[in-house]
Amino acid sequence: MAEQAPPISDLSFEAALKRLEEIVRRLESGEASLDESIELYGEGDALKQQCEARLQAAQAKIEKIQFGRDGQPSGTVPFDQA
């Protein structure tokens, strides 16, 4: 019996990106059947969304927008500072 892959949401950013790269190589090779290509495309799309969400979460932790007295953005500060 084949080992089942973990859910995409459980993958680290690095593991998700590696799997996405494998999918792109497989699709670009032209060796996948139409049905397999459709399945791979769906998995790739889910992996892309997962990677983007993790990057956005990391970005939010790193910095937040700081606003000036006029209400306009005036720069950024580390996320954990007031």
UniProtKB/TrEMBL annotation:
Its main location: cytoplasm. GO terms for molecular function: exodeoxyribonuclease VII activity. It catalyses: Exonucleolytic cleavage in either 5'- to 3'- or 3'- to 5'-direction to yield nucleoside 5'-phosphates. It holds the Pfam family Exonuc_VII_S. SUPFAM superfamilies: XseB-like. It is found in: Cytoplasm. This is Exodeoxyribonuclease 7 small subunit. The gene is xseB.
